[in-house]
Amino acid sequence: MDYYSNARQRTIFSTVPNANFIRVIIDRAIHRELDYLVPETLAERIGIGSRVRVPFRDKSALATVVAVLEHSDAQGIRPIEAVVGDGPILSEQLLELARWMSAYYCCPVETVMRSLLPQVIRRAEVGWKKQLFVQPTRKIDNDELEKLRRRAPRQAELLAAINELEAPMLAAELLRKTSLDNQTLRALVKRGFAELREGAVPRDPHGDEQFILTGNLELNAEQALALKEVMEALEAPENARPILLHGVTGSGKTEVYLQGIRSALERGRSAIVLVPEISLTPQTVERFKGRFAEAQDVVAVLHSHLSEGERHDEWHKIHSGHARIVIGARSAVFAPLKNLGLIIVDEEHETTYKQEEAPRYHARDVAVVRAKIEKCVVVLGTATPSLESYHNAVAGKYKLTTLTQRVDEQQMPFMRIVDLRQERRKGKAAAILSEKLRAAISNRLEKREQTILFLNRRGFSTSLLCSECGEARNCPNCSVALTFHRHMARLSCHLCGHTAAVPKKCPACGKDALIYSGFGTEKVESTVSQIFPTAVVRRMDADSMTRKEAYRETLRNFRAGKIDILVGTQMIAKGLHFPNVTLVGIINADLALHMPDFRAGERTFQLLTQVAGRAGRGETLGEVFVQTYTPFSPSIQFARHHDFAGYFQQELEFRERCDFPPFKHAVLLTVRSAHEARAKFSAETLARRLKETVGAEFILGEPTPAPLEKLQGQFRFHILIRGEAIVRLSRLVRETLDKLPFPEDVAVAVDVDPYQLL
Ligand code: ADP
Ligand code: ZN
User: Fold this and answer.
1) Rounded mean pLDDT of the chain?
2) Percentage of residues in the chain with pLDDT exceeding 90?
3) How confident is residue 16, by pLDDT bands cut at 50, 70 and 90?
4) Does residue 359's CB lie within 6 angstroms of at least one atom of ligand 1?
5) Residue 45: its pLDDT value, please?
6) Residue 662: is the preceding peptide bond cis (ω within 30°)?
7) Going by CA atoms, what residue is nearest to atom 9 of ligand 1?
8) First to last CA, the chain
9) Helix, strand, coil content of the chain in percent (nearest 5)
């Protein structure tokens, strides 16, 4: 039985009492579900979602129970070896979600499981952190205490404290409070006055922080209307459509989320808040923890920097029902909350919600499907809706609500477009800072206001060319030029991490004619420092922020006004609030625009709008300078006038004309191999087969070298298929792939709804 037919077999969800067979999915990808026998002694402890250890071939393997059966037709059925962990770790709803993901994203359900359940939970090897708790063995009266005081005063002091405990206390904590030592405690235990017991202590990553309870803010009319939509949906979630909350930056979307969650909690339900990893800052966490600070542990946080132990504890806090609000990045969409009432996807347009390895899911879309399965409400919030979501709203599949005003009644910043074609004639430095932008910065420095300069490219020079022979220094593993990083005085590849020494002479022709060209954030930082020698300039990108604290520190200093100009990549484009920033410069708006990707225009529009949202959150009107060689491109012009509707309309027309998403779904197949000819041949063979299997119903593209032809030593070919019935297409693609005997050294990746077309 293959896993696709399983996906449609809903009957196996029913639980059968006294069953002694189970069907499992083994953790390692084998694309099949297998049946096992359950010894009677273990039967009670097993249900759907339980974890078991089973014999598999000549080894043993971990597996998840997906069905409990009365009988099984399997041949040579073997008994399971053991039950792993304390109970089921997967609800039937999450299992259903896993099956949907498997069918939709053309990916074995075992692979889906790996994303759905953190490794630390699947393996069940890490447990709670155990520590010693102290408690009195019996009530001690004053006489006894006095007697002890004469012989051992310190023991008596400690015993008096223990005597007063209402509940067992962490031994270490008691000793710290009383300033007494372990030896004294041990003596009391020996005398039978006190006892020590092991207990679980949660490893709370925010345990040492205090959160002050904050109340609801009084909503403005638009916010109130948006909240009303959410409340009405919570009233009848089974009929509710997903809500698209389109609110400009600073319009108070988060306040609507917070009050929506409050309402879900009051109905006895739980909530998930997804935010892009980059926005999961201490301030964000604080806002949520603060609003729900009435009960400890009610908010759990899931992100990629948790230790295994912390992840274990947060997961169990959620699973056991202690935590009822989960805030986290992409994979928090799988948080094992019971009675889910509300899922919020903040910044729904963010492409980081898409996972770029199998299962290649999009957390926003998974959230919508999970909401349907769990009969709960889903809210997609953003200042710049994705075309997909906007289209769904226009088509009536989503309910659109808009917040058009900033809470502080601030005007949208003034956007000025700087035509770099004219600036170019004024010399090289002008391409980094045009005269107009330079004057604007100068003006801010005088007024002691702050500036953000944005460029989405790291490094100093983006290529090193020989002006004699024309040779560029390219990465040996990838088809891109190496970037020169001045601080480490090396060339580096941003795709595979390869680094190389900087040659003095051209290695190809031996001439001393190497020239640096193109620039990144490092060069912007140095140019700006030269032009404004008295200003404090700092850079924030993946190179300068290698330490975790560096990020917080720079932001703190910037907020405190100790930095005049902050130069950075997308790290600074998103969700940060700085009231004293009145100027934002976009150094080169064309970088995103000229990517070989049908979403290039959309990304540019979003980027400009997002970055612009950083300017002028205080009293003064903000200004944004957009430097570009293509000042009349629609994305730039519509963004300039803050004209969302106009932009969406023209972009949707373009997508429809070209049969691109959101009008058609796309599936991108990437065939890769270290041998170029083998990759090419395999791609051509695959395309021929696909023509027979999917050709009639779907739009099948020719196999072509990927825009990024070589990546990490692998040659890559693309086949793009477009169509509407995506689950059917997924199945046809899988069947075609299963039947093709690819050489060992050729790999094929299937990406449904791809966001990365390079
Ligand atoms: P968004 O999420 O849309 O960018 P926020 O929710 O972060 O906007 O709101 C921006 C600021 O306005 C925050 O400091 C927030 O506390 C404040 N705010 C939001 N709603 C209100 C309100 N109704 N009254 C007063 N202040 C508000
Ligand atoms: Zn490389």
Assistant:
1) 87
2) 49
3) very low
4) no
5) 82
6) yes
7) 252
8) 36
9) 35, 25, 40
What was the pLDDT predicted at 662?
94
The residue contributing the CA closest to ligand 1 atom 23 is 219
Decide whether any atom of ligand 1 lies within 6 Å of the 407 Cβ. Answer: yes
As a whole number of angstroms, the distance between CA 732 and CA 749 comes to: 15
Question: SS3 sequence, 563-607?
Answer: CCEEEECHHHCCCCCCCCEEEEEECCCHHHHCCCCCCHHHHHHHH
Who wins on pLDDT, 541 or 257?
257
What is the C-alpha separation between 436 and 433, in angstroms, rounded?
8
Q: Where are the alpha helices (DSSP H) in 74-170?
A: 92-104, 109-116, 119-123, 142-151, 153-163
Cα 660 to averaged position of ligand 1 atoms, centre (Å): 36
For range 448-465, the mean pLDDT: 90
The pLDDT confidence band at residue 3, using thresholds 50, 70 and 90, is very low
| pTM score above 0.90 | no
Nearest to 749 by CA among 681, 701, 686: 686
Site to substitute for ligand 1 among 257, 402, 407, most atoms within 8 A of C-beta: 407
Q: What is the Cα–Cα distance from 572 to 612, expressed in whole angstroms?
A: 11
**Residues whose CB is less than 8 angstroms from the CB of residue 187 and which lie 6 or more positions away in sequence, other chains included:** 152, 155
Distance CA 651, CA 653 (A): 5
For a mutational test of ligand 1's pocket, the pick from 254, 256, 288, 405, i.e. the residue with the most ligand atoms closer than 8 A to its C-beta, is 254
Determine the Cα–Cα distance for residues 126 and 312; give it in Å rounded to an integer: 7
- Separation of 465 CA from ligand 2 center, angstroms? 17
Ligand nearest to the Cα of 483, by number: 2
Say what percent of the chain tops pLDDT 70.
Answer: 93
Kindly report the length of the chain.
758
Q: What is the pLDDT of residues 307-355, one digit of tens each?
A: 888 888 899 899 999 999 999 999 999 999 999 999 999 999 999 999 9
The residue type found at 17 is: P
Ligand 1 atom at shortest distance from the alpha carbon of 254: 6
| 545/532 Cα distance (integer angstroms) | 23
Q: Is 366 helix (H, G, I), strand (E, B) or coil?
A: helix
* Token pair recorded at residue 314: 């947060």
pLDDT tens per residue, range 554-610:
888 998 999 999 999 877 766 567 778 889 999 998 887 777 788 989 999 998 888
CA–CA distance, 608 with 647 (Å, rounded to integer): 13
Residue 463: CB within 6 Å of ligand 1?
Answer: no
Measured CA distances, 475 to 192, 481, 711, 716 (Å): 71, 6, 9, 16
Contact 420, 627 (CB under 8 A): yes
Helix 221-235 with 253-266: angle, nearest 10 deg: 30
Instruction: Return contacts of 545-554, CB within 8 angstroms, 24+ apart.
Output: 545/571, 548/305, 552/282
Paired strand residues for 666: 722
**CB-ligand 1 contact for 249 (6 Å cutoff):** yes
149 CA to centre of ligand 1 in angstroms: 59
What is the Å distance from ligand 1's center to 251 Cα? 6
Which ligand ends up closest to the CA of 495? Answer: 2
pLDDT in tens, 349-361: 999 999 999 999 9
| Contact 568 CB / ligand 1 (< 6 Å) | no
* Nearest partner of 457 among 542, 528, 563, 538, judged by Cα: 542
Query: Ligand 1 within 6 A of 217 CB?
Result: yes
Atom of ligand 1 nearest to the CA of 223: 23
Q: Provide the H-helix boundaries in 164-271.
A: 171-178, 182-190, 221-235, 253-266
CA of 478 to the centre of ligand 2 (A): 4
Q: Per-residue pLDDT tens for 398-438?
A: 999 999 988 877 777 889 999 988 877 776 666 789 999 99
